[in-house]
Structures are given as structure tokens and as C-alpha cells.
Amino acid sequence: MLRFRHGFGTLRHSVHSFRRSLSTNKRLNNLTSVAPMVDISTPNFLELLHIISGDRHDYYTEMHHPHAIHQHQDHLDRFIGTPRPNVIVQLGGSDPNLLSSAAKLLQDYGYSEININVGCPSPSVQQGQFGAILMKTPSLVADILNAMEGKVSIPVTIKCRIGVDHLDTSEFFHHFVETLMTCERPPPHLIVHARKCILKGLSPKKNRTIPPLNYQRVYELASLYPDLPISINGGFTTTETIRDALGQVDGCMIGRKVMDSPLFLQEIDRDIYGIPENEIKSPLTVIDEYLGKQVRKEKKKGTQKK
Ligand SMILES: Cc1cc2nc3c(=O)[nH]c(=O)nc-3n(C[C@H](O)[C@H](O)[C@H](O)COP(=O)(O)O)c2cc1C
């Protein structure tokens, strides 16, 4: 049995009732998303995901620094990926003005949503005073959100962890979220990687495995903020666990499972969204379409050079 947060009571765990609940319970355009992953979520990877599952999931881009957005402003589609309603551009930075002017360029180019990285522990990112270290200064994250007001009308969301270093209590996490929710422009969606991050002594890779997952912390937050759409992230590798999570929060973000096996999206399409088998592409069709697109792209480049 599943229990939904938004007044649906207890529902039988059948595909039929689950789909019914999905269609009426939607506060996010898509309930599932593919996580931002540097060096993975490239334009070509996003294109592959689009071929596999179209607009059924949200696809986050790699994290980009606002300077890079300025630098590549004439060809952002090639640099970031095709602007689509379900493509969300992740920015990493800490300067509110720089971030909001990059956001404006992205909006003008046709991108429909932006996400700010408040969860990355990499040493270079820490040196730039952004990523997970921003969790230590929630007022700066609020300043970043506030700086978007008047600059962009598209949603600007936050991806964070449940804590950082010794700041790992529920109280700390709630204070962090409360600071964002009481700023002038609160995030319309919060994505939480359900483990804390350790800034010194653990590599980014180890920071994705060693600090233990604490889904309960995220579920607790969801009950404290019933009006805030929340997605949970971290360690989801089966459609059963995704389905369970969607009974507690609005969305579920999946990273490494899709990185290792992009066709996992089709399992979600089948099991969570009940997409019939005849609408699921065969691996051969996916490869064919992907290669076809690559060939057309190369030909276009060739023509442009002549
Ligand atoms: C190769 C790789 C690169 C990543 N790069 C980013 C990034 O640019 N921005 C970000 O917020 N998280 C990044 N992450 C973290 C993921 O978005 C996600 O939070 C993490 O992998 C946990 O989800 P998972 O267990 O489903 O993989 C990256 C993860 C991987 C594996």
C-alpha cells in the first residue's frame, strides 16, 4: 500500500491506481529526472535520453559556471544541449549577479528552467566557494535566488545535500531550507541528495558512497513543507524503490543507474508510467536514431565549413 502526501489517502499498490494518482498528484511536470553529472550529461547524452524516453523525465545538464555561459552565449545549444521544456540547466557559482546574468542569457536562449548546485564537494568547486560549501551560508543561497527576481521569470531551483561536515542535524537542515523558503524568491522545487557531504578528506566519488543515505530526513522535510515540491536523490536503482519514494515525495532523481544503463529509463516508463510495450523503442531503434542524428550533425558541420 502507498500513502500519498496530498490528500489521496491510502491507495492500492496497483499500476492502475498508481497511474491514476500520478496524473492527479502532479506538482512537477515530470516525477522522475536524470541527475546532473559532469562529463556525462553532455549534449549528446541528453540527446540519447531524449531518443530513449522523450519528455517523460526531466534531464539535468552538467554543472556549468556562469563565466562559461557568457563565453559560449552564441552557441549554447551545442555547449549545453538543445533547449527543451524538460531540459534543466545546472549552474555552479556563488556570485548572485554573475549567476543571474547567466540565467538571463539562458532564458533568452530558450531554456525553461535553471538549477543551482549546492551539493558538489569537488576541491576546485570548494575553492570557488560554491557547490556544497554554500550550505554553510544559507543567506548567500537566498541572495542568489533573490538576485534572479526581475532578471528571469523561469523557475530557479536548488539541489542540495542533507548536511555538510559537522552541520548534519535535522535542525541545521531545516534552518537551511527555512532560509530559502522565507527569501523573496523561494525555490519552486528542492532536490535533495539524501546524504551529507564531507568537504575535506573525501573525493567527490567517495562523497557519493561513504556518507550514509538518510531518506527519512528528506521525508521529514516533505511533511514539514507540504507546499514545497521536493525530489529525493541518491541510490535509486530499481523501479520498486523509485515507486516507494514517489509515495512520500513529489519526485525522484536518478544518476548513476542511468549513467551506467540509459535504457533503465524504459523500465521506469513501463513500471511507473505504464507505457505499453509497443511504445517502447528497441535498443536497435535507439542506436539507429542516435547514429542518424550524429551523422546529420557531422554533415551540417561539414556544410558550414565549406
Ligand atoms: C560522474 C558524476 C558527475 C556528477 N556531477 C554532478 C554535477 O555536475 N552536479 C551535481 O549537482 N551533482 C553531480 N553529481 C551527483 C549526482 O547528480 C547525484 O546527486 C549523485 O550521483 C547521487 O545520485 P545517484 O545515487 O542516483 O547516482 C555527479 C555524479 C556523478 C556520478
From TrEMBL:
FMN binds at P36, M37, V38, Q90, K159, H193, N233, G234, G235, G255, R256. The keyword Protein biosynthesis does not apply. The keyword RNA-binding applies. The active site is at C120 (proton donor). Its EC number is 1.3.1.-. Its cofactor is FMN. It catalyses: a 5,6-dihydrouridine in mRNA + NADP(+) = a uridine in mRNA + NADPH + H(+); a 5,6-dihydrouridine in mRNA + NAD(+) = a uridine in mRNA + NADH + H(+). Gene3D superfamilies: Aldolase class I (3.20.20.70). CDD domains: DUS_like_FMN. One of its GO terms (molecular function) is mRNA dihydrouridine synthase activity. InterPro entries: Aldolase_TIM, DUS-like_FMN-bd, DUS_fam, DusA, tRNA_hU_synthase_CS. GO terms for biological process: mRNA processing. It is an enzyme of class 1 (oxidoreductase). Belongs to the dus family. Catalyzes the synthesis of dihydrouridine, a modified base found in the D-loop of most tRNAs. This is tRNA-dihydrouridine synthase. It comes from Absidia repens.
